[in-house]
């Protein structure tokens, strides 16, 4: 009999083909989607408004408001759905003052099934929430906490229509989890904001010290600064060394900007040796040389068994550089996902090894270097704005060799002396050879000059190096062919646009710009680049030179199966140089 009654009830029940979704699944999905919003690099007001908008997708509500307080209890930010500038007052007027005060004072959620009859709501509060005899309004408010301190509230209100079924206990638990996530996000934003203000003040102080650095009177010679490994007597190098002397005294992060081959690693080493950390270790790492998975292990270390091949625990570069300096070369090449991990370590000076749970605390000064235009990368969302401000507290520009052409004889003779010592020879440059070097553009900077001297000295037959010993005299210098414009006459000078390495001063960038990941654009810097020396043979016509160079590139690419790295080896170039040449001649890469 009971079985027949059960079957009759089942037949009377309406059938639905829509699968039932549990409340826990909805809550889990909601927490997941909200966490993605909270970790996005947006302004805090925009982030909180997006959270309120998303809440309405996971629970029945009419309005939602997030209100944050300053440390002294004064309202700081109040946002709701569809927030925009100037709406704080409108949302703040909707908040019941007594009820909000109770949530903040007790740090306990407040639930009112009917605000019109609840003692925490005045008649004006009920009217502001839209409650009336015909409209029953309920209210839920939960505290937003950081540790044990309440920093704000998350509130929602809803209208009872007589048909909806609300699960107040589940709603309170869900809102409490959301409020906890919001609290952690707000704390991070405030720490970053305070840190940025401190760094901007530090940068302003250092820039003021640099601006006050003036030459001595004409009757006295200015005190010269000499740094081991840095060769030059030009005004640009003397200015760079003077700046290094000041920068080295600080513990602030330094960002070295300049083209490839200018000697940024030597500058980083000099900053370390002139600093109070000179007795500590100087650890260096090329960020572009390692994939992200290996880079994390190299920087942070790993525990035994953290991954396949981790047969023992290993210290990372941050741990090895404790109480010293860590040089991160090519920092502009790290992936966006790894930038977030690196930012936390730079801010907190603490991390965990890969596969470990123990937090390690270090005291490391970071000197980073890049030849990439980070301002443009920030504008394209390829580089995090907060990491940009963290590493660029003190920008230092390393001049290219063409900007300090007077140092070429000093550098060339130093490289030749080194070659003579290593190979037991006694070579020297004659005047014709030095004229050739002074006429070169050296797009590879000091590194290219050193290679040129070594190659020429190795092949030189006599006791001195003459002009005809250089490869460019025989049209065999691929660098000169690939980097020289075919439209240039032998003795003309032209402005060449190069990626601007100059950083905008932090004091000129507002906090709002930092939060919105936008950086002011600066115009390209034009640098006069002299053409090759008149002694270098020039082809009869511009067209012949252009076609010959283009054909040489196409031929090498075809022989290498259109693999750039192989073609670069055939031509004796770096992958970056051949990439530049292919782009210059608009040669389309064939894909197979």
From TrEMBL:
Pfam families: AAA_lid_14, GAF, HTH_8, Sigma54_activat. Residues 230-458 form the Sigma-54 factor interaction domain. GO terms for biological process: nitrogen fixation; phosphorelay signal transduction system. Keywords: Activator, ATP-binding, DNA-binding, Nitrogen fixation, Nucleotide-binding, Transcription, Transcription regulation, Two-component regulatory system. InterPro entries: AAA+_ATPase, AAA_lid_NorR, GAF, GAF-like_dom_sf, Homeodomain-like_sf, HTH_Fis, Nif-specific_regulatory_prot, P-loop_NTPase. One of its GO terms (molecular function) is sequence-specific DNA binding. The keyword Transcription applies. PANTHER family: PTS-DEPENDENT DIHYDROXYACETONE KINASE OPERON REGULATORY PROTEIN-RELATED, TRANSCRIPTIONAL REGULATORY PROTEIN. Required for activation of most nif operons, which are directly involved in nitrogen fixation. Interacts with sigma-54. This is Nif-specific regulatory protein. It comes from Xanthobacter flavus. The gene is nifA.
